[in-house]
Amino acid sequence: MPDGDERILVVEDDQGLRELLAEELGETGYTVGVADNAESALTRVREAGADLVISDLRLPGGDGMALLEQMAGLHERPGFVMITAFGTIAQAMQAVKAGADDFLTKPLDIDHLLVVVARVLEMRRLRRQVARLESLVDDGDFHGMRGTSRPMRELFDQIRLVAPAQGPVLVLGESGTGKEQVARAIHAESPMAKGPFAAVNCAGIPPDLFESEFFGHEAGAFTGASRTRKGLFEEADGGSLLLDEIGELPMAMQAKLLRVMENGHIRPVGANRERAVNVRVIAATHRDLAARIAAGDFREDLFYRLESLTLEVPPLRERGEDLDLLAAHFLQRCCAAQDRRVQGFADAAVQVLHDYDWPGNVRELFNVVQRAVTFCRGEVIDREHLPVRLRNHQPRDQDDPSAPALLARLADGPVLPTLEDIQRRYLRHVLDQVGGNKRRAAAMLGIGRRTLYRWLEREGLATASELGRDEPAASSAER
Ligand SMILES: Nc1ncnc2c1ncn2[C@@H]1O[C@H](COP(=O)(O)OP(=O)(O)OP(=O)(O)O)[C@@H](O)[C@H]1O
């Protein structure tokens, strides 16, 4: 029995038949709309959507076949049942060939009609379910993270590798790249998956509360501690604990954290005994920890304890086709949340999204799509629905007035250099500019560090082992 959620549009110019069909279908439990010509039917489906269209083959203002063709071009194509006159079986077959799900001949047998309607709607539900499941596989859904680009596939492989291993994991990446999602995926792939997952943002804890947040406290341990409270390590016992923004942890807490990670025991504030805990620590940061160490803000010993399993989450601008995939994914999510039916992005909007460099990464993209869905009143997100900062953004090359001058300098000999020559010279130039710092060089070139390593090795500018030595943040998983 239908629950009224399924919407059927009856397109019929014969008023008597139209009303009869609407009544029968309505009484059966469907939500029914009507139209008496092809044009208004199309407008209705575009604006309000429909799960099934039942249309007469002959209609004023365009025939049912043309309507069928137009429906096929819609993003969410409704099911389609064609009504033909008795004795026009050839036309009915033609309609099925053109994509109609079934046909009915006049005079209509209402019981037969209801069986056909139920079957077509059921088929449509199943088709959508299959498409959804296929998209989960094909769209590279890895524990809620979407990505089919090479850097993301590599990241998923690395997560599968580090998850079963013992020991802490360090997750590096710019803000909004999905570090917390990566931590959840590590937990889900690990032997501790059935245990709890706890997360804390170290930047959000007042310094005097750190110890009790991490290790808990006994009742009366300090003013305001009226009851005994478990700390994060006990909450995460048997599972994983994400320490987000680890770079913000005060030095004194870093020493205590290191101790717990080494001996697996905590002592709640005010307790006179230690307790054993079994927690997988996952630390994340967008900070350059090597620079924090150099500035005296981060303990080197803690860093070395954390960095043996390091994962780097690539920035969105290095993920190529994932931008479209994520935009479409967020569009679907936002439409569902706001109960809207926006079909997609106009070419001009896609261009703007691609020209932008996404400093806020995936989180920024989500916010942009959410805002666009709110501002867009029609079916398609266009340029004007995107924020001004995106529309006014100049792609990097045009941005840099020195680029033509630099190119001229690189190519200033009597013979024009090859592209490889230019690449080699440009690499040296960028390395000079950043004082040999490979992390910054990679960021400036807009490529991943491993790609930079490959280039440098190929150009004979360094060997793999040399490259590893001055890069404390490079992971074993990466090399
Ligand atoms: N690959 C992805 N697929 C789908 N959603 C994603 C993906 N990566 C990130 N997100 C979403 O983007 C948002 C930001 O992700 P997350 O909080 O994990 O980033 P973060 O790197 O931890 O951010 P911060 O540095 O600010 O702590 C979340 O809403 C998350 O669900």
Automatic annotation (TrEMBL):
<feature type="domain" description="Sigma-54 factor interaction">
    <location>
        <begin position="145"/>
        <end position="374"/>
    </location>
</feature>
<dbReference type="InterPro" id="IPR058031">
    <property type="entry name" value="AAA_lid_NorR"/>
</dbReference>
<dbReference type="InterPro" id="IPR025662">
    <property type="entry name" value="Sigma_54_int_dom_ATP-bd_1"/>
</dbReference>
<dbReference type="Pfam" id="PF00158">
    <property type="entry name" value="Sigma54_activat"/>
</dbReference>
<dbReference type="InterPro" id="IPR003593">
    <property type="entry name" value="AAA+_ATPase"/>
</dbReference>
<dbReference type="InterPro" id="IPR002197">
    <property type="entry name" value="HTH_Fis"/>
</dbReference>
<dbReference type="InterPro" id="IPR027417">
    <property type="entry name" value="P-loop_NTPase"/>
</dbReference>
<dbReference type="InterPro" id="IPR025944">
    <property type="entry name" value="Sigma_54_int_dom_CS"/>
</dbReference>
<dbReference type="InterPro" id="IPR011006">
    <property type="entry name" value="CheY-like_superfamily"/>
</dbReference>
<dbReference type="InterPro" id="IPR009057">
    <property type="entry name" value="Homeodomain-like_sf"/>
</dbReference>
<dbReference type="InterPro" id="IPR025943">
    <property type="entry name" value="Sigma_54_int_dom_ATP-bd_2"/>
</dbReference>
<dbReference type="InterPro" id="IPR001789">
    <property type="entry name" value="Sig_transdc_resp-reg_receiver"/>
</dbReference>
<dbReference type="Pfam" id="PF02954">
    <property type="entry name" value="HTH_8"/>
</dbReference>
<keyword id="KW-0238">DNA-binding</keyword>
<feature type="domain" description="Response regulatory">
    <location>
        <begin position="7"/>
        <end position="121"/>
    </location>
</feature>
<keyword id="KW-0067">ATP-binding</keyword>
<keyword id="KW-0597">Phosphoprotein</keyword>
<protein>
    <submittedName>
        <fullName>Sigma-54 dependent transcriptional regulator</fullName>
    </submittedName>
</protein>
<feature type="modified residue" description="4-aspartylphosphate">
    <location>
        <position position="56"/>
    </location>
</feature>
<dbReference type="InterPro" id="IPR002078">
    <property type="entry name" value="Sigma_54_int"/>
</dbReference>
<keyword id="KW-0805">Transcription regulation</keyword>
<keyword id="KW-0547">Nucleotide-binding</keyword>
<keyword id="KW-0804">Transcription</keyword>
<dbReference type="Pfam" id="PF25601">
    <property type="entry name" value="AAA_lid_14"/>
</dbReference>
<dbReference type="Pfam" id="PF00072">
    <property type="entry name" value="Response_reg"/>
</dbReference>
